[in-house]
Design brief:
With 492 residues, this protein is of the alpha+beta class. 29% of the residues lie in helices and 20% in strands. The protein is built from 14 helices and 17 strands. A seven-stranded antiparallel sheet has the order 3-5-6-10-9-8-7, covered by helices on one side.
Length: 492
């Protein structure tokens, strides 16, 4: 189908998706900071609204169920579902179309404390830390128990993507988390393996089933054209890095506490403005030291305010989030949101249209072979008869080169006495036309020069002479012995 065909009423545009960009590429250009900031802000907003009952229309599952509740996905294997721009089950009719898909697999393990890296690895790492040791020493009546927290989200030491690739891409991202308290400590290593690429949307030709991820983009010309236009496209952070920055980055719940004065009026004002993420996701859980009402209403939590309450608030939230099952669910929620942003053209400079076409139903002719043979024979016989008549007609002599207006006038002049006037008033005057013969012939006689008349019983022949004006190449002029001009009809 050509580009000209991609217009109504043949097809309908059903989506506009982002073009695949390299995730965390080490190559230039560096990740677009403005672009990443916009995506991070969007993902941060989703941490306040994500819940187990959330309907996810953009997550494709093997069963093709749509919509799907997020809690049902947490019980499935990581590789069994993926994120795409279009709602799950979108069918493109008779028009095969490819769409971008992103799926991730999350694994995490408890590791020894000394395995936490001294220097965060990778080309573009992200680090965050908080400790209330100094506040406990400097602030009297400090209510928070002592703790230290740090994290390291590594960059992409093994990334080797080229900008503009449309082929399958695989990256691995690593997150180290460490929380030390007076009575306990934990250290985690989380690994998120992300695969991006294109798949064929359900359509008539693949039995309305989503295709597998493609290793290579199938159209080489389109691929090269895309690489040329995308040469200067900035790469994007991966889903794990976007998620970590959305939870712990600038302006987040964690960052506001980590950068605030944890005492006095400043601490109280900060406390009242806080919104802890994932409370909707874990609405059934109680934050240690907090009741479910106060976790949703900071005004109740922060009255009366005590020095160190911000640190305690953060510690209670960290203990909730870093519970093994909760950590897995929280990261799956945010990385899923991050994957959605990577498929949406709103966060990128360019996009690609996706089309659908229902096609037109055509009744397929179904005829028995016997009937086809009989009909073919009858048609062949008809053609033979028509061809024979054409050959016969073309081989006979004619009295005029062409039946033009002059020839018609001559016929009318011949029948002048019999034909009705143009202004005839009665239908019976026109009946003579129905009775008039419609051919040219001559009367049989012994005369050498025959006279052609309308309705003559004898058919003109090549070997006869006729009284006729020379009107073209079909007749030949002769001068008879007695000096009378005559013609002989012939095929020439």
């Amino acid at each position: 189908m050509t580009q000209e065909d991609l217009s109504p009423p043949f097809v309908k545009e059903i989506g506009w998706e982002a073009v695949l960009v390299p995730l965390g590429s080490k190559l230039t250009p560096e990740p677009n900071e403005q672009l990443n900031s916009a995506m991070i802000e969007y993902i941060t907003d989703t941490t306040f609204t994500s819940s187990f009952d959330e309907i996810t229309t953009n997550i494709w599952t093997p069963s093709g169920d749509n919509p799907t509740q997020f809690n049902s996905l947490l019980n499935t294997a990581n590789s069994d579902w993926f994120v795409s721009l279009l709602p799950a089950g979108t069918d493109t009719g008779v028009l095969p179309q490819l769409a971008l898909r992103i799926n991730s697999s999350l694994e995490f393990d408890n590791i020894p404390k000394n395995s936490f890296p001294t220097t965060c690895p990778g080309s573009t790492p992200f680090e965050a830390a908080y400790s209330n040791a100094a506040n406990r020493s400097n602030i009297k009546n400090y209510v928070a128990e002592p703790f230290n927290f740090k994290l390291c989200a590594s960059g992409y030491p093994n990334a080797s993507f080229s900008p503009g690739d449309l082929d399958r891409q695989d990256i691995s991202e690593y997150l180290y988390l460490d929380l030390s308290q007076s009575n306990a400590s934990l250290t985690y290593l989380c690994e998120l393996t992300t695969t991006t690429g294109y798949f064929e949307l359900p359509n008539y030709w693949n039995n309305h089933t989503a295709g597998e991820i493609l290793t290579k983009w199938p159209d080489e010309d389109l691929y090269q054209a895309h690489r040329k236009t995308q040469r200067d496209t900035a790469s994007s952070q991966g889903p794990m890095m976007l998620s970590v920055m959305a939870i712990f980055g600038s302006g987040t719940f964690f960052d506001k506490i980590a950068t605030s004065n944890d005492s006095g009026i400043d601490g109280a004002q900060t406390c009242r403005q806080l919104r802890p993420p994932f409370m909707a996701l874990f609405s059934a859980a109680l934050v240690p030291g907090l009741n479910s009402t106060s976790s949703k209403d900071p005004e109740l939590l922060c009255e009366p305010y005590e020095d160190g309450l911000l640190a305690q608030y953060l510690l209670d939230w960290l203990n909730l989030i870093l519970a093994p099952s909760n950590l897995h669910q929280a990261l799956r929620a945010t990385t899923t949101s991050a994957s959605k942003t990577l498929t949406q053209p709103d966060w990128h400079d360019g996009g690609r249209a996706i089309y659908t076409s229902t096609g037109t139903d055509i009744i397929k002719l179904d005829m028995p072979k016997g009937a086809m043979v009989v009909i073919s024979i009858l048609i062949a016989l008809q053609l033979i008869v028509l061809l024979s008549l054409a050959i016969y007609a073309s081989s006979r002599p004619t009295w005029t080169e062409s039946l033009d207006s002059f020839a018609i006038l001559r016929l009318g002049a011949t029948m002048a006495a019999e034909l009705p006037s143009i202004s005839a008033l009665e239908a019976k005057h026109m009946a003579v036309l129905d009775e008039q013969k419609g051919w040219i012939g001559y009367q049989k006689s012994k005369e050498i020069l025959k006279t052609l008349t309308i309705g003559g019983p004898m058919r003109p022949r090549n070997d006869q002479f006729y009284r006729l004006v020379d009107v073209g190449k079909r007749v030949r002029l002769y001068v008879h012995a007695n000096g009378v001009s005559a013609v002989k009809l012939y095929r020439g």
